[in-house]
Design goal:
9 helices, four-stranded antiparallel sheet, about 30% helix, six-stranded mixed sheet, Rossmann fold
């Protein structure tokens, strides 16, 4: 086993009587895209600012790239090895994209070539454009460029595609995948669950300062098990009671069957259709979405419910 890039154990942080982070523990491996999720006030920002070295902790152990980020003696070296993309960055509006990146590249011992970064963030045709002329989405891409210009080993991305159009979002996703393939570790926050499913290998969900679930997006909260919904168009001339399996409901012409045995139900349904010479049109199988599971986890935790940790 390699040493984790991030190792957090028993992390606590309080503001007077408010426990912002309460006994949080997790690890992040090299080259992993790791997502930290939670509603506003869940403890995400506090946790990340502790990892970045911008905030002290009350107790617990934190190691980032082998450093204690709270140790001021290591700050200069530590900061040359991480990249940070905040929700809003202050960038000189009269500088060009190239000038901004060139200026920041000089802060690092082994920065990426500026032209390479411009290409990676999808601003190849905007290199000589002044920042103030960029759209909001283009400025957000520049924020990402500033985060990766120093060739970081670890990149913190806070809502990296906020305000981007679909093309911009997918271009940013491709850039994140490229970085991860090069061995860069990415710690990501996002309110877009499709983004988490597209990028993250593992997820930790915080609510009320505590971890309420952890694991791969596909199995978070047990979403890879349990009930599914089978939907298909009700064959013309047939009523729901004519089907071989009880129907939970009919929505227009769409029949819905809810079951824990998806393979058995589909086998019975397709066998019946073949024998009766009936076409099954629009057959789909749907599990709980990541957004459904996330809302259930955070709502249950907020109301004191019992949440099964994965």
């Amino acid at each position: 086993m390699t040493t984790p890039v991030i190792n957090v154990s028993g992390l606590h942080k309080s503001y007077k009587t408010v426990h912002a982070v309460d006994d949080v523990s997790f690890t992040v491996q090299r080259g992993e895209v790791f997502a930290l999720l939670g509603p506003n006030g869940a403890g995400k920002t506090t946790t990340i600012e502790i990892l970045e070295g911008f905030m002290s902790r009350d107790r617990g152990s934190v190691q980032v790239l082998g450093f204690d980020p709270g140790n001021v003696r290591h700050q200069q070296l530590f900061r040359t090895r991480i990249g940070i993309v905040l929700q809003e960055l202050a960038v000189e509006p009269y500088f060009t994209v190239r000038q901004v990146l060139e200026r920041n590249a000089g802060f690092y011992p082994s920065s990426r070539p500026v032209a390479e970064v411009i290409e990676l963030i999808g601003l190849a045709d905007k290199g000589d454009a002044r920042v103030k002329t960029l759209s909001g989405g283009q400025q957000r891409r520049l924020d990402v460029g500033l985060g990766i210009i120093g060739r970081p080993e670890l990149l913190f991305l806070d809502e990296p595609t906020s305000g981007l159009d679909p093309a911009g979002r997918h271009a940013t996703w491709d850039a994140i995948r490229t970085l991860a393939s090069e061995g860069v570790t990415v710690l990501l926050t996002s309110h877009y669950m499709d983004e988490i499913e597209a990028l993250a290998q593992r997820v930790v969900v915080l609510s009320g300062g505590r971890i309420v679930a952890a694991g791969p997006p596909a199995s978070l909260g047990g979403r890879d098990h349990g009930q599914v919904t089978v939907r298909f168009t009700l064959p013309v001339g047939l009523a729901p009671e004519n089907l071989p399996i009880p129907v939970a409901r009919v929505n227009g012409t769409t029949a819905e069957i809810r079951t824990d045995d998806e393979l058995g139900v589909i086998a019975r349904l397709t066998r019946w259709a073949r024998d009766a010479d009936v076409a099954i049109v629009g057959l789909t199988v749907t599990r709980a979405s990541l957004e459904d599971v996330y809302l259930e986890l955070t709502n249950s935790a907020d109301t004191g419910g019992v949440v099964k940790r994965k």
